[in-house]
Design goal:
alpha+beta, globular, 6-stranded antiparallel beta sheet, 272 residues, two-stranded antiparallel sheet, 10 helices
Length: 272
């Protein structure tokens, strides 16, 4: 497992900023260490995943327990998320009107006989997009469309669509940042991802990724920019490539995707 797999994303925070509270960031990195289907984690695992000294982790987990964000199973034992953390997370999600509206739109995008297609609403977080809402059929083949999943900006369709909702100078700045952190052999691929996003968006008004993030995954996506706010979101639709070939996504699902993006952006057809 690589260091990138071990450490949670930091949202590209500028830790040199004098207003930046390092202790708070470290505490949040502990809470972000939990992964899907994980219930209990030890101080040793927290230290591995955050890169923090074990002594620091011990103080942080003690404080988070006192505040109700973590619960320790027994003295000296592992920790699980407490009611405080759950209330915080679900409170944020439940307060998002866009997420509530998106649930209906995502279901509409996926309508049809193909029960192995899924859709999601995501928001940029550092060099990734995090899924805030998803729609998939109960009997669908298992895939990556689940709440809280993170997908890359430059290789996934939803990441590329998120980039296209930004000014070009911001796109370029994110590319520079990604290339600085990438291995030399991966830098050209990152640039190609941005080029592909710009070409797709200029041609169709949405972005594609057909096996470019994960070989088995195809998807199309469009940006959502609410008029009443500054947060930028995107929505996508796709799934396993052998069940969702590019021609189906382009002809059947992309028009629905564009309508859904306009609806969530509160833009009438005339503004498209």
């Amino acid at each position: 497992m690589s260091d990138d797999d071990e450490r949670p994303e930091d949202g590209a925070a500028d830790t040199s900023d004098p207003k930046f509270v390092t202790a708070l960031a470290r505490g949040l990195s502990i809470l972000r260490s939990f992964r899907p289907n994980e219930v209990f984690l030890s101080n040793q695992v927290f230290a591995q995943r955050t890169g923090l000294p074990k002594a620091t982790v011990t103080r942080l987990t003690y404080t988070l327990c006192k505040l109700g964000y973590l619960v320790q199973a027994e003295p000296g034992g592992a920790y699980r998320l407490g009611a405080g953390a759950l209330t915080l997370g679900y409170g944020v999600l439940s307060g998002m009107e866009l997420k509530d509206r998106a649930a209906l739109e995502l279901a509409e995008v996926c309508k049809g006989d193909n029960h192995n297609v899924a859709a999601a609403l995501g928001e940029r977080y550092g060099q990734s997009v995090v899924y805030l809402a998803t729609h998939r059929f109960p009997n669908s083949v298992s895939m990556v469309f689940h709440l809280g999943a993170q997908v890359p900006l430059f290789h996934s369709s939803i990441g590329r669509a998120t980039l296209m909702g930004m000014p070009e100078d911001k796109q370029d700045a994110l590319l520079d940042e990604a290339q600085r952190d990438a291995a030399p052999e991966d830098r050209a691929r990152l640039a190609q991802g941005l080029t592909r996003a710009r070409e797709d968006y200029a041609r169709w008004g949405f972005c594609t990724s057909f096996g470019e993030w994960r070989r088995e995954i195809n998807g199309v996506a469009a940006p959502v920019i609410p008029r009443q706010g500054h947060a930028l979101y995107s929505i996508n639709v796709g799934g396993f490539g052998f069940l969702n070939p590019p021609e189906d996504l382009l002809t059947q699902y992309a028009p629905r995707l564009l309508r859904a993006a306009r609806t969530l952006s509160l833009r009438p057809e005339a503004d498209a």
